[in-house]
Amino acid sequence: MSGRVVLVTGGASGIGRGVAAAFAAAGDRVVIADRDAEAAARAAKELDALAVTVDITDPASVAAGVAQVAETAGPVEVLINNAGLVAGGGPLVSLPMEVFDTVVAVNLRGTFTVTQAVAGQMIERGTRGRIVNISSIGSRQPTAGLGHYEATKAAVDALTRTSALELAGYGIRVNGVAPGPVHTPMTAGLMENPEARAAWESRIPLGKIATTDDIAPLVVFLASAQADHITGAVIQVDGGQLLT
């Protein structure tokens, strides 16, 4: 079989699905990891990929999923840590603790847990792997009501840099992609509200909210041989929003 084994967490929809489609189009063997087994199976069928059910907040589930991928497709060569959520919003002083805990569990603990399992397998097998973490420009540009989410993405950026430093000696590169607002199922409410959409787009110098097709090419590039001297970078894809 040709192509690398690419594991995409949260690959059943949104940015993850767009990234999975881009790797599949490039000839890689894509595995979609998602806690929604039915959605993962549908996406995998559409992309001629494989699917594995994983709860990234549970180390045992992650370990089992990574082992299953190795048995069915081969050891993971490229990991895309995409799974994430907002889970709600509101001022820090009134944000429900369960919302905070959920976001930390998925966005930070989940990214850490999957990185730990896959990087460990890469080291054990001598795989010069590639890891790309999906972050957010929110880690650098605050939005009122999203402090819980943005804090986890800032932590993902820090984890990206530390992972890059620790894993470089094994030939494993780790980078991040930080999108601005992207049209996905998670932002569907925003996109369908003309006033809210206009408010967001007014913050973007290029004047539009991104699509997954704006994000996927950079992720594919960072996992490619053309990026072999890039590690520890977190690159924004935001239409210039961080300039404002």
TrEMBL record:
- Has the keyword Acetylation been applied to this entry? no
- What family is this protein classified in? Belongs to the short-chain dehydrogenases/reductases (SDR) family.
NCBIfam families linked to this entry = PRK07231.1
Stored InterPro entries: KR_dom (IPR057326), NAD(P)-bd_dom_sf (IPR036291), SDR_fam (IPR002347)
Oxidoreductase: present as a keyword of the record?
Answer: yes
Against Gene3D superfamilies, the record matches this protein to: NAD(P)-binding Rossmann-like Domain (3.40.50.720)
Sorted alphabetically, the keyword list is: NAD, Oxidoreductase
Domain Ketoreductase intervals: 4-180
- A Pfam family matched by this chain, by name? adh_short_C2
Q: What is its EC number?
A: 1.1.1.47
State any single GO MF term. Answer: glucose 1-dehydrogenase [NAD(P)+] activity
Protein name as catalogued: Glucose 1-dehydrogenase
